[in-house]
Design brief:
Elements lengths: L1 H10 L2 H15 L2 H4 L3 H17 L5 H19 L12 H13 L12 H36 L5 E6 L2 E7 H26 L1 E2 L15 H7 L4 E2 L3 H6 L2 H27 L7 E2 L6 E2 L7 E2 L1 H24 L13 H25 L1 E2 L1 H9 L5 H10 L4 H18 L8 H7 L12 H7 L8 H18 L2
Parallel strand pairs: 3-4
Antiparallel strand pairs: 1-2, 5-8, 6-7
């Protein structure tokens, strides 16, 4: 009984009611992040207002007042003079409320023939197209940095790894160009996502269309949309384009994380293959000799938050009935964060690649002090008519003997090779790191002439991307 009475007193407490009201307001508000849509929201509203005037739905004098007021609001926001009010919940109501203050009753005509449902979908599509363009440009910039570095190291030999074990020799340029290919796919995905977002939902209303003679095609042309949505119910609830952006961003972060991991490993004393610039490393708080690869580690770490945004949105949309549900308010924070993260990570990777120093001698030494020529020696026997599996076994045994004796292939005499197979002759002594990479003279191979061709093609792709 006492507990119940206390509960009744709490319910009758004005302060408690105010706290509850504030909680409800804060919980449903999105203005703290969707204010980033102000350019898109105002641009779309101006196009919508002008269409209403063209179609005779709103008087031309009111249209001019609306457009003038919206332009004034944009100026206020850009000058930092606009007062954002959380109690108005979102970007749309904040702009509309201020418009009322500036132009009065005419502001109420702006929302004719539209809903916040098709309005926010339009704003977000416009914003995503811009984000795709920025991510595309950042990916191409990283490709350019990789090509520039690769061109300097067409003849630099480094061990190629599988399972983090030295496998075969490759030229460093070939290794770097592998990342070029990854980021080329990423750039393509961002371009494809921009196309997916390039559909205008405005005019769909809340879910069923609007009972006014609007001209959707004219508005789409004003906003540079290539097409309009075909189904109003799908238009207000579709967030596939955001999923596509987050997927493209996630894959880009995966590739950046792989690149970062190698930069971290290669810059360690144990490898010593590269040195990262001071600008993209930091010192230790207590160990004065150290430079830590912080940027690479942060990129690797931030990959998870982008993955989280993708999984969060996939989970949000998986059980939603048609059409719009408030759950979809959760689409933008992840989108904005992922966009910021992937673009700054790409830009940081450009800086790391451009500023790092390559220790070619250390790379070659690592290749020489290994058994990366084992496959080439086996292939030598294959050329003599030995089935590859037999040749593999012979060279495997030879490798084990070398390891047991603490020596490498370069320290063997011809007679040592001939103990493994009588088909070995003087030619086997001419197998070197340089001959091994030159022998991979196939399209996509590590032979220097093939890598030069790949770099030439890459430069053309970059030039085409800039057009």
């Amino acid at each position: 009984m006492t507990s119940q009475n206390n509960g009744n007193k709490e319910n009758n407490n004005p302060a408690a009611a105010a706290r509850g009201s504030k909680l409800a307001s804060d919980f449903t508000a999105s203005i703290h992040y969707d204010s980033r849509l102000y350019r898109e929201d105002i641009t779309a509203s101006i196009a919508h207002a002008r269409m209403l005037g063209r179609q005779g739905i709103v008087e031309s004098d009111d249209v001019e007042k609306i457009v003038g007021g919206l332009n004034s609001i944009a100026t206020e926001i850009e000058n930092g003079e606009f007062e954002w009010k959380s109690e108005l919940e979102d970007i749309h109501m904040n702009v509309e409320s201020r418009l009322y203050e500036l132009i009065g009753e005419a502001a109420g005509r702006l929302h004719t023939a539209r809903s916040r449902n098709d309005q926010v979908a339009t704003d977000t599509r416009l914003w995503t197209q811009v984000a795709c363009g920025r991510a595309f440009d950042a990916a191409v910039s990283l490709q350019s940095a990789l090509v520039e570095l690769a061109e300097k190291h067409i003849d630099t030999i480094v061990p190629g790894y599988t399972h983090m074990q030295r496998g075969q020799p490759v030229v460093l340029a070939h290794h770097l160009m592998a990342y070029f290919e990854m980021f080329d796919r990423d750039a393509t995905r961002f371009a494809q996502t921009a196309e997916s977002a390039d559909v205008m939902p405005l005019g769909s209303g809340a879910m069923a269309g609007v009972p006014y003679p609007i001209d959707r095609e004219w508005v789409a042309d004003q906003l540079d949309f290539s097409e309009i949505s075909r189904n109003s119910m799908d238009a207000v609830s579709d967030r596939d384009f955001i999923v596509e952006f987050l997927t493209a961003a996630s894959l880009t972060m995966a590739h950046l994380s792989r690149l970062s991991e190698e930069m971290i490993i290669w810059s360690s004393d144990e490898f010593g293959f590269i040195k990262l610039s001071d600008e993209y490393t930091s010192g230790s708080s207590i160990m004065p000799q150290k430079r830590n690869p912080d940027f690479a580690e942060l990129i690797r770490g931030k990959t998870g938050r982008v993955y989280g945004s993708l999984m969060g949105l996939l989970t949000t949309i998986k059980g939603l009935p048609l059409t719009y549900n408030r759950d979809l308010q959760e689409d933008k924070e992840g989108l904005f964060d992922a966009s910021d993260t992937v673009i700054t990570s790409l830009e940081s990777a450009v800086g790391m690649i451009s500023g790092m120093t390559v220790n070619g001698d250390r790379m070659r030494q690592a290749a020489e002090n290994s058994f990366v020529l084992a496959t080439d020696i086996a292939d030598y026997l294959v050329a003599k008519g030995v089935p590859f599996r037999e040749a593999y076994i012979a060279v495997s045994d030879l490798s084990k003997q070398c390891i047991s004796n603490g020596i490498g292939f370069s320290e063997l005499e011809l007679s040592d090779f001939q103990k493994a197979s009588s088909l070995f002759d003087e030619g086997v002594m001419k197998i070197t790191l340089d001959s091994a990479v030159a022998a991979r003279d196939v399209p996509g191979g590590t032979a220097p002439n093939r890598v030069r061709e790949a770099i030439k093609e890459a430069k053309q792709l970059i030039a085409d991307a800039g057009q």
